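DATA SHEET
Item: assembly model
Revision: 1
Owner: S.N.
Input lines:
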Amino acid sequence: MTMAYRHGTEGLDMAWCPGCGNFGIRNALLKALEDLEIPAEELVVVSGIGQAAKMPHYIKCSCFNGLHGRALPPATAIAVCNRDLTVIAEGGDGDMYGEGGNHFIHCVRRNPDITHLVHDNMVYGLTKGQASPTSMIGFETPVQPEGVILRPFDPVAVAVALDASFVARSFAGDPDHLSGIIVEAVKHRGYALVDILQPCVSFNRVNDYDWFRENSFEVGDDHDPTNREAAFSLAVGSEKLALGVIYRNEDRKTFEEQQPVWEEDGTPLFRRGPDLEELRRLAGEYEV
Amino acid sequence: MTMAYRHGTEGLDMAWCPGCGNFGIRNALLKALEDLEIPAEELVVVSGIGQAAKMPHYIKCSCFNGLHGRALPPATAIAVCNRDLTVIAEGGDGDMYGEGGNHFIHCVRRNPDITHLVHDNMVYGLTKGQASPTSMIGFETPVQPEGVILRPFDPVAVAVALDASFVARSFAGDPDHLSGIIVEAVKHRGYALVDILQPCVSFNRVNDYDWFRENSFEVGDDHDPTNREAAFSLAVGSEKLALGVIYRNEDRKTFEEQQPVWEEDGTPLFRRGPDLEELRRLAGEYEV
Amino acid sequence: MKEMGNGGRADVNLVVSGAAGQGIKTVEKLLGKLLGRTGRFVFSTKEYMSRVRGGSNSTDLRVSAEAVDCPVERVDLLLALDGPAIGHMERRITEETLVVASPGDLEDRVGIRARKAPVDLEGLAEEAGRKVYSNTVAAGVAAGVLGLPLEECLPVLEGFFGDPDSEDVKGNTKAFKAGFEKGGDLDAGLEIEPGEAAGMLLMSGGDAVGMGALAGGVRFICSYPMSPSTAVLVFLARHARRFGIVVEQAEDEISAVNMGLGAWYTGARAMVTTSGGGLSLMAEGVSLCGMLETPMVFHVAQRPGPATGLPTRTGQEDLELVLHAGHGEFPRIVLAPGTLEQAFALTARAFMLAEKHQVPVFLLTDQNLMDTFYQVRELPLDDVDTTRFLAEAGEDYRRYSLDEGPPSPMAVPGSGTGLVCLDSDEHDEEGHITEDLDLRVRMVDKRLGKMEGIAEDVLEPELCGEGSIIVVSWGSTRNACLEAAALTGRDDLAVLHVCQPYPLSRKVGEILEGADAVITVEGNATGQFGRLLRDLTGITPDAEILRYDGLPFRADTLAEQLSSQLEGI
Amino acid sequence: MKEMGNGGRADVNLVVSGAAGQGIKTVEKLLGKLLGRTGRFVFSTKEYMSRVRGGSNSTDLRVSAEAVDCPVERVDLLLALDGPAIGHMERRITEETLVVASPGDLEDRVGIRARKAPVDLEGLAEEAGRKVYSNTVAAGVAAGVLGLPLEECLPVLEGFFGDPDSEDVKGNTKAFKAGFEKGGDLDAGLEIEPGEAAGMLLMSGGDAVGMGALAGGVRFICSYPMSPSTAVLVFLARHARRFGIVVEQAEDEISAVNMGLGAWYTGARAMVTTSGGGLSLMAEGVSLCGMLETPMVFHVAQRPGPATGLPTRTGQEDLELVLHAGHGEFPRIVLAPGTLEQAFALTARAFMLAEKHQVPVFLLTDQNLMDTFYQVRELPLDDVDTTRFLAEAGEDYRRYSLDEGPPSPMAVPGSGTGLVCLDSDEHDEEGHITEDLDLRVRMVDKRLGKMEGIAEDVLEPELCGEGSIIVVSWGSTRNACLEAAALTGRDDLAVLHVCQPYPLSRKVGEILEGADAVITVEGNATGQFGRLLRDLTGITPDAEILRYDGLPFRADTLAEQLSSQLEGI
Ligand SMILES: Cc1ncc(C[n+]2csc(CCOP(=O)(O)OP(=O)(O)O)c2C)c(N)n1
Ligand SMILES: Cc1ncc(C[n+]2csc(CCOP(=O)(O)OP(=O)(O)O)c2C)c(N)n1
Ligand code: SF4
Ligand code: SF4
Ligand SMILES: [Mg+2]
Ligand SMILES: [Mg+2]
């Protein structure tokens, strides 16, 4: 069994900028995988394109590094076709909420048993600093020289509105908090969103480590994450960003659980061949 | 001035099934346009593909009947390029929340001054009865023979989570209510969603006129639509569907209002030519 | 080449026309069953508007004692379920056509030059119990005109309408009998003798593709509904439990193709079914498929474009689309069945080819093929190649190894202790992102190098006839071309049918090289296959017969077009 | 054909290499300014990795007293900002190359066979105040080696680094001077005399396309960021207020193209800018454009694929994509500029053609063109055709009138009392959905009929030289082909440059007909333009020179390839 956390950084040519929040996320993820004891060969990380989406190249795992914005559909399919695999979909805020926004909505509705890690740096990193869906109003970029005018997308509020089965937020600058949340998210049966506040030191000079610290707060013990209205209030009720598990709905069945293919047989689909005999019977039914 | 409501049904070969909720919506829309006194030549209805999306062919207006799922982007562009036009985007639940889901999210963020009418029949009508994003769990169709397993999309809750500037729901079976809501929506400065419960007599035998009547209620006078948390509670707090104006946020600026092109000049863009003299100056700035 | 169309009554072409919602489909299904059970051959095709109710649609049912497998323009018997149906069919009505319609509807159309047979369909239906039985009355008339034995029909009716003691069966049976009697009384001279059709399988194009997918081992289908491709999604949904398939309706086509690739990454054979517009949306996914070298089967059922076009009609306008969809360069395969048997066999083969060569395979059909049905003797189940091409992921597994292949051995995650890494960027052998530009070149060469193995698996064209003037058909036009060529009565004609447009068998060039003249037949306005032919063989067609009004080629009118083209050659 | 490359020191190719984030861009910009101001000509191109920090990138600056407009492989002077840069450049370093690097970095690379010039860039920078001035030291070294007059350089520095009294300007000036002195001391024999470059415009491909769009009257651009096309979006965003343009970043490419069509429906000239992957996503929108007959300009800046491929590199792999993107059949135009002047002129022309013919126009560039910069004398502003082609919507306006054209006169909503109706379904003259199949045929014929008018506006190819062996270049390879042909020293060569691949001018066929041999040069692996040539002219190239490693063609190595191909002919 090869552990997913085996990788150091030595020998890896990592394309992230020194000081980037992605390093903190990587550390937290490795820690979580270590705690979860997931063998590397049973872990599939699915990502899109962007700086965040390079993660699977920097940890020990199988991966499907597909198209920008399109991580969730393959992640869903992988989870439903082979239930022995642990599936994590990972990428940036542009990737997951911009180009991939429609998959986000419908993946939440589908509720596959996957963990969704979004590196939310409120900017497009890889393409050099345009606004992302979560950029703040007034944020200036080469494409928005007079500042962003679109209302920022609030993934947590929207996920609650979609009745996602697990919704959390954490911070790249607090790897302990983050790894704890990731462990919970992976253990959660069903779709689990972790929106991760992530400083981008190269293109986002506004939302830096300090800004995130000053503009977030930890969800208190008094919060009942199974209360949807309370979760929504927590998400939108304050100027500051709530950190922690904001909502969970354990009543929802997963996508996989409801598939006839898994009702009686646990064999991964790739080990199942065509049933030509049954097909012969079916063809026979076309006899007039 | 040609009034948009001039069209009768005579001479029109309307492709809707007898008894379809779309007729009620059409009546309500014509009534609203009449009340609003919008000249036909200043009205543009933008639609996608589906039974609902055929609406612009059945009223007197200019129209952009584009692709399935893609009504909101052209509607936004039309509104921002010519502020003399009244723009309505109209289509079905599959069109707007399925194929077009990403545009829905980001259009709400953009807040153009358009009215968004969604015929929500909880089914794909034109393609003969598959599940739509709003279909109820257990709804059986040829593609979902054992019933829908995805959690239905709640457009109202999501729009509130996105802080849409106007969110309402109405019912095709109550054209008076609906036309009143449409009038408010069109008058509203900014993006206005009207999710319209619409019976499909051919493919949705579950959510028929009676079902909608029994499973909806009118928002009471005590509801404060400017209260976002209250709006959310109204949207998700009951098994039944709230009808009326559920949320409004008049503080948001529209997309158009924030465009430099409109700051000093009200001329529609098509009447503005290139400024070659200014371009000559710009080119001069490249002299080393 | 098939001998047919002696001009006599070898076959009767019966058309049922009416509005959407009037139950044409019931007539068509019922008659199909009745004709098959009584030993007749039947071919059916339909044309319909993009609406749920109203308008005017029609279904052709061509009936014969011999096998029939393509449409004709000629209408021998028209069952008009409403007034507008007569207008809708007017162009195809001749003096020979027997038009059965209600007296009122017929009178309104005094102009038509046809054999008029007023039958009060609604009245007879009401007598039988309910007005909605009109379509059953019509079916009865048809059965009577065609001279089917009533006693053989009755048991079929029972099976068809459900519980034999139910009101419905009784009413429908009464209605049918009433119609049957009228039909017989018309003495139309349109009887068709029974043939050897007993025991054959009556299926549609959609069924054939669906069963081909089952034979190909499909385990996952994800698609967004789009006419005329939805039939395959519905077919597999119906059989999902029985055959162990995950069937998912996607939020959009982009999700569908990306889910499909995810499924196949785990080794679950996957497909998507869509039409041109949906494939346009999948274009980036096609390119991803090319880069990841993850197999995928794309069923593309064509309809006329551009954009929404004519959503329920037929065309062959998307050949160049499937040839070029997606950015960048990578190999692909395009298959285009011409018969139901081919639809079955090529669909199954598409899965094998996709997995073997790790490329996108396009199965190009159209509304014409999807919505048609006729009898086939049996499905070539024994010829299905069920080989799998999956490796195990050993400790040092490298998904894009340059040591073997092309293609590099494909393993799936969880199949061993090794890791399976895919990357949409240019990548190294392990599947990690690279900026090594030499490696880039080797990876390009490796991907394109797969074309060699693909060429070895190419399907040969089918040459029918000995003539030196060759009519070239591809995809669903096969049967109409064959019959049309026969109908011209000229023995200098041969028909070459291509069921794999890309890559193209060398044979195609060799055969056409030797021809005196080449005439292509295509369902588009610009001659896309003709261009491909010139590109791949250097041969330019001498003449093109193109149809792009949304209707399929029909044997008799195509024969006329062929004849007039031949005059010019 | 241009006379160049006498092998002497007519030009110096200087390369700055280092990690992302080390300020290569500053050196490149500063040197560009210095060279221009002091009368030298400069051509620049860069290659970089898809990352924000680290890795190894490089920028070529080719300097001459004569105009230079394309890259060479040869490196005369390498400024290596860090150790890995030397490794990165190793393949291009010869014994002739003067390598300037810090002593430590040079020592680590004892193997390299080059003229080594150890300069302690960081040390000198620290002496000048801060380590980050290293790149300015490097620029100073370059200026010294090239023999620029220091007194002319200093005022430029001030303008470049901002407020003359600031710490920054002082420190940078000090750093520059220190480097300059070192550079002069090296006595490298790489001085370049001043030429006639004064007063010329130094601009990039991105700038040229951006200004072309302004000249074309762009009023709306909506796009999703994607290298290497984003430069145009950024350019127009910067000038949005000044020129009255709506600039919007879309949520995805699908939104971008549909917004663009909406804008142009209102008569606001619109464009999108994207790369191959983005265009794949827009394919359905392209088809919509074809059906609605609403104009649209697509700027497609190519990069190597498939899928994500090499996002920051160059290639010409998407010609067939733009030729076929979108389902169904409709006319289109493809333009592919070869110079900055063409980039400007063709972009402006794209808007005119789109509106005149009501079709999608593709402006096909690549990273090579986007990221290059050099001097141009002036932009052909006076040649811009600013005609508008909009009608007024009168009372009975029918958007798809068959009475006039093709194209039918295009009016926009609100321009009159009439209604303007567009429909993605097949439609009648008023723009309403139809199922009239005769009308369908007429509408197809009308749409395709626009090809005639388009053909009249086709741009002729440019033939340089008298030779009978013709090197065919398209798009951004023009300048490299011209110089390479000259470098071969053979007078039997001519270069034919095609700036409009589709439709292709008849002239192309006529010219090539008469050639003794045809050699195509393309930045892809399968010879896409060669295929198009065969399709449209019947001519098959005798040889193809293909490059697909993500780098542009360079004149000197291309000349060698040409020479070796010529041996075979
Ligand atoms: C279809 C498509 N469009 C655009 C791009 C270009 N692109 C690559 S990454 C990216 C955005 C990166 O932002 P984000 O997802 O937030 O990730 P980050 O780099 O900030 O981690 C874009 C626009 C692409 N690769 N594919
Ligand atoms: C890209 C694309 N995918 C699929 C279709 C087929 N299609 C047309 S309408 C429709 C759904 C109709 O449902 P809805 O939007 O709810 O409208 P309704 O007919 O119910 O009013 C679909 C899937 C299409 N036209 N384009
Ligand atoms: S660009 Fe920003 S997000 Fe990307 S690696 Fe650098 S700091 Fe991190
Ligand atoms: S199919 Fe349903 S939604 Fe469409 S017209 Fe008929 S009843 Fe209305
Ligand atoms: Mg980001
Ligand atoms: Mg619907």
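QC remark: The pocket of iron/sulfur cluster (ligand 3) is lined by residues A 16-17, 20, 22, 51, 121, 125, 200-203; D 52-53 (CB under 6 Å).
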